[in-house]
Amino acid sequence: MGRKVNQKGILLGFLVISFAKFLSCEAKTHHYSFNIKEAPYTRLCSTKSILTVNGQFPGPGLHIRQGDTAIIHIRNEADENITIHWHGVKQPRNPWSDGPAYITQCPIMPGKSFTQKIELSDEIGTMWWHAHSDWSRATVHGMIVIHPKSGDHYPFPRAHAEVPILLGEWWKSDVDAVLKEFKINGAPPNVSDAFLINGQPGDLYPCSKSDTFKLVVEYGKTYLLRILNTAMNNILFFSIANHQMTVVASDGSYTKPFQTNYISISPGQTLDVLLEANQTPNHYYMAAKAYHSNPIVEFDNSTTTGIIEYIGNYTPSSSPYFPENLPIFNDTKASTSFLASLRSLSTPVDVPLEIDTKLFFTFSINLQPCEKNHTCAGPLGERLLASINNISFLEPQIDILQAYHSGLLGVYNDHFPDSPPLKFNFTSNNLPPSLFIPNRGTSVKVLEYNSNVEIVFQGTSVVAALDHPIHLHGHSFYVIGSGIGNFNEKKDPLSYNLVDPPLMNTIAVPKDGWTTIRFKAKNPGVWLMHCHIERHNTWGMQMVFIVKNGKGLGEQMLPPPPNMPPC
Length: 567
Ligand code: C2O
Ligand code: CU
What we know:
This protein has 567 residues and is mainly beta. The protein folds into three domains: 10-147, Cupredoxins -  blue copper proteins (Immunoglobulin-like, Sandwich), CATH 2.60.40.420; 161-340, Cupredoxins -  blue copper proteins (Immunoglobulin-like); 357-547, Cupredoxins -  blue copper proteins (Immunoglobulin-like). It has helices spanning 2-25, 175-185, 332-340, 400-406, 534-538, and strands at 29-43, 46-53, 62-65, 69-76, 84-87, 113-119, 125-131, 141-147, 161-170, 194-197, 213-217, 222-229, 235-240, 245-250, 253-260, 263-265, 270-276, 283-291, 303-310, 357-368, 383-388, 391-393, 439-441, 444-447, 451-459, 468-472, 477-484, 503-504, 506-509, 513-521, 525-531, 542-547. Bound molecules: CU-O-CU linkage (C2O) and copper (II) ion.
């Protein structure tokens, strides 16, 4: 009898312990419903209908923990095709849920649904989701906040509150019309009318006084700002009047904390910063504006603002203080030196040291002669395009993943070159027009499973030298070096940081400069790499990696889910 009770007691104890364990550290599965629908929004004195998720703009945030799973049920109630991408989430072995249209899936058609499974692994901090078809991501986007596992802590002082700061870009006209127009006429797209902070332009724009994001702070408290650049076409500078920020994470990975009075953030990039409310109680502007390295190219030179307001009894200054440290629009040095300050928190990192796949990619803006019986409005009456290694990406009719998985021929070729077809002085400001015309094709680069990959990204001055924020799907990469001018194979590797380089998924290659990244290709599947400046992307600054299956257990791509949207 006594023995029986004992056994029961042990069993009960076991159950209690495993339940507690389940509560504390077992990964959870979260379910979300995303209904894609049109909704009217008024900004800058004009109303238009925008594409949203659940009628919200910016879209709903996902709050999950490291290692959790999220199941997203997407229903397209709008009248255009759409896909959703989980930017920065690696999707181990599961490219089927990655989202880029015609790369890993065909679009979800109006009236149709698709369920995507987001399995987190080591990602931590701030990420986001956005539409990945046409230009829908202008309004179809939201934040993904990944908290530490329960029982785990942030490696920095606890913040009193966490504040999402989504930087955005707004056109008064319909974004889809902007896209259609420049695709037809070959010219640069119309520049936007405003930038936004959490969907609000701020009071420097006409009739936007009430459309200003306000953050109320308490003196002496610390706030964790999760800053995300969702803008379509611009890298942004962001600064807060009189306050320093301490950067603690970028792109879903911790960094060594460092103080700064401004940040430079690429479309696609995220930065987590600590803000200490340690100034004289008053109201202060936070402000963001474009970093635009080539004045020849037209851009939106406006400034979005939000207000930080201290609680308390005081007479505020007549208007909020404006950040003096916001760099001027073409300050390349400010952008590159900020990015160069990013370092991984832990040392040493697992950056690949023995490289077996060395690649050299050039990023160019191009021109193509106008079609017969057509007028083009690009420079020299031609059509603007963009390329990687002189190949301007052509979107296929059937997604590459499906073609790869089912062995369908004729959708893509695997001839993407390891280096550009022609070597020339890439950053010369006097290049012959013969270099302007790219090839066009749907080319992929096949990578062996577990290969150690190094890519030198080289910006060129073909047609127009600009910064290019390059984003890789399915992997994070270490940014081990960067510089201005042509990459020097002998000299530049000597300055590589192999000790604590930052782990990123989007990195701005400086105007007329280069950036070197390294990663291990350990995620079998089909993964897009592209410039996150949307107009460059539309012009073809994209390419695709296919990472082959490994031989071992758990080293193969998962089978497709049953409900993939048909082409
Ligand atoms: Cu942020 Cu290919 O995406
Ligand atoms: Cu670009």
